[in-house]
């Protein structure tokens, strides 16, 4: 099993032996169950379906505007996927990865997230909600412009991410790490109790924090 260490936290990467996967026809419409499969490239835009994915690699698949609900994810890698304006509702996402994917306007709702990893993805104008985070969730070099990040954000790491005009609605945030990211014009900071930021980030966010606390700042 491959491990990734970021900000003092250890994430378990998806456990997939690609040489053992079998190429399967791509069909997310209706009920589906894929295991030990390689899917894509292909076009599945606008489909509606639900089921399970276990030890699956999904490469260069257009899922824009799709609705996958519910879908259980275990050892799944989305690579180069188009998830623009899609809705994904997952009771469980365990060792799940999103790499180099477009997720503008995505609505992602995960009840239990355990070792979820995203790298080089665009989550602009998206809504990401976590019911419960187990172990670690890591975002590396991702963009969250005007997005909503909600629910359990404890032990979520944002590494070299752009959080611009982002809204936070955290139920928990202990251990959330924002120190290595660009944080500008964000809202909902009072819900982020326990998150880590650098002193210079705190200074830049001071006026926003004061406004959310209801303080009248006199110039």
Q: What is this structure's SSE topology?
A:
Elements: E1 3-6, E2 9-12, E3 22-23, E4 30-39, E5 42-43, E6 48-59, E7 61-62, E8 67-79, E9 87-99, E10 107-119, E11 127-140, E12 148-152, E13 156-164, E14 167-172, E15 177-184, H1 199-204, H2 206-212
Parallel strand pairs: 3-4, 4-6, 5-7, 6-8, 8-9, 9-10, 10-11, 11-12, 11-13, 12-14, 13-15
Antiparallel strand pairs: 1-2
Pfam families: Pentapeptide
Quick structural summary:
By secondary structure, this protein is mainly β. The protein has 2 helices and 15 strands. The model has no long low-confidence stretch (mean pLDDT 94).
Question: What characteristics describe this protein?
Answer:
eleven-stranded parallel sheet; 219 residues; two-stranded antiparallel ribbon; 15 strands; 2 helices; 53% strand; mainly beta
Count the strands? 15
Overall radius of gyration: 18 Å
Shape verdict: elongated
Overall pLDDT metric: 94
The termini sit apart by: 55 Å
Element-by-element helix/strand order? EEEEEEEEEEEEEEEHH
- How much strand content do the residues show? over 45%
Uncertain stretches: none
Helix content: under 10%
User: What class, by secondary structure content?
Assistant: mainly beta
Biggest sheet record: 11 strands, parallel
DSSP summary: helix tally? 2
Pfam families: Pentapeptide
